[in-house]
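Quick one, tokens below:
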């Protein structure tokens, strides 16, 4: 079934019902309440910007509306029932924006971006909002604002974003941190890390924009929700750009992520599809920068750690004592709530791909890790490679041996997730960070044994 999601803002912004085929299902997605006030966390974000003495821009609001509809489609349309191959969905979104002319030339570009990100077939069209979103006036004047932000920095609550935050604060920058919140465990990690940063850097003003956006269940009538959420980074980066447009006419938006996970080369054939995300892939970030240029935002999105492994990020963190102390409070697990049915705590499982990379990084940087893992000791017994506790370890072992036997294969494998910059020196760095990332994990897994049990 092809799905069309049409966004609208209140009763005064009712779009017409399009002509559809028998194979197409249309869902109208309310972006606000009956008074026309914008919701889904966007309205609160506008108020939060005003509380910081910043004025939101309509181009940034339009971007959040677009991202909200992408999020709705990605998380509320099941791949299992709505696609012919249990993966690729056909999705069209109709986005209400303030300036259709500004967005009309981006439709093909967005189709390319979203298809690369989620693996679906997207179509994006725009229509004019019949009511201008009211922007709250800045509550504090410029003379009352006690700080001037120099950039926006994404803050997920993960270890990489925490390292990025520490480095910026140590270097004297004044970033506005930006978080997307969708579940309790992620939110808790974000709060803990921010509280520790505020305590340690008590002489600095540390502010954060929290975009709380979670789509209601049953949004698409008769269709189950989807849990792969490969499109989540579109919303996260859009929030960062929104914040950036409030800060500067030429905003800088940082996306701290180690280069090994950004490339996310499939470890084996099983990691194609749902298990191989492209949330910060260099090509995807390049498409984002091209989009900003197309809609008139003279800013840049940058990943300053594109050529670093996670262990190298830890080792090179400007404040070693601090990151070693508060790093364990960060959250890296792909599914921190999956252990509940086994009676485990909500937190790190210890054996998923992000947990393995995290544990490898701590071993390389500090040779110790005080993070609490449900599966604390991977060496205690043979791990069953046919179950979740052993699958990712086994996949890593295969990939590590393959590159150890044929190091030059890295230059081919890094192209599997997507195209990379054609510059020879930069391309060599991509291959090198992939090899070093595998070596880093290999040292951590050296004594771990897997077998099909």
């Amino acid at each position: 079934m092809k799905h069309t999601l049409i966004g609208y803002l209140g009763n005064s912004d009712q779009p017409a019902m399009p002509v559809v085929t028998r194979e197409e299902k249309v869902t109208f997605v309310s972006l606000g309440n009956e008074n026309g006030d914008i919701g889904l966390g966007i309205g609160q974000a506008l108020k939060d910007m005003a509380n910081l003495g910043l004025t939101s821009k309509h181009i940034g609001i339009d971007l959040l509306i677009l991202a909200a509809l992408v999020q709705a489609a990605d998380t509320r349309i099941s791949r299992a029932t709505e696609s012919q191959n249990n993966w690729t969905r056909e999705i069209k979104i109709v986005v209400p924006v303030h300036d259709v002319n500004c967005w009309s030339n981006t439709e093909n570009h967005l189709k390319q971006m979203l298809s690369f990100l989620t693996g679906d077939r997207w179509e994006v069209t725009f229509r004019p909002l019949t009511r201008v979103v009211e922007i709250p006036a800045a509550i504090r004047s410029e003379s009352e604002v006690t700080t001037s932000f120099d950039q926006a920095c994404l803050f997920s609550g993960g270890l990489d974003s925490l390292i990025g935050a520490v480095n910026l604060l140590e270097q004297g920058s004044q970033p506005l941190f930006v978080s997307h919140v969708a579940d309790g465990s992620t939110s808790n990690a974000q709060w803990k890390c921010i509280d520790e940063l505020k305590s340690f850097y008590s002489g600095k003003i540390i502010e954060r924009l929290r975009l709380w956006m979670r789509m209601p269940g049953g949004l698409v009538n008769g269709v189950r929700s989807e849990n792969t959420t490969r499109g989540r980074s579109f919303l996260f980066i859009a929030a960062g750009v929104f914040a950036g447009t409030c800060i500067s006419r030429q905003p800088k938006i940082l996306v701290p992520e180690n280069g090994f996970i950004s490339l996310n080369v499939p470890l084996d054939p099983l990691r194609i599809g749902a298990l191989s995300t492209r949330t910060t892939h260099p090509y995807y970030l390049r498409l984002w920068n091209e989009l900003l240029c197309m809609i008139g935002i003279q800013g840049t999105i940058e990943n300053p750690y594109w050529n670093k492994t996670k262990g190298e990020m830890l080792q090179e963190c400007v404040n070693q004592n601090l990151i070693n102390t508060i790093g364990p409070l960060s959250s890296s697990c792909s599914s921190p709530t999956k252990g509940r049915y086994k009676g485990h705590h909500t937190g790190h499982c210890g054996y998923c791909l992000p947990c393995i990379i995290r544990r490898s990084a701590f071993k390389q940087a500090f040779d110790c890790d005080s993070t609490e893992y449900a599966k604390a000791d991977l060496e205690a017994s043979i791990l069953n490679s046919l179950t979740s506790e052993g699958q990712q370890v086994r996949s890593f072992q295969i990939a590590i041996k393959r590159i150890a036997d044929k190091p030059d294969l890295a230059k081919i494998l890094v192209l599997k997730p997507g195209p990379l910059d054609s510059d020879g020196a930069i391309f060599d760095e991509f291959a090198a960070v992939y090899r070093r990332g595998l070596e880093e994990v290999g040292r951590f897994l050296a004594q771990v044994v897997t077998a099909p049990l």
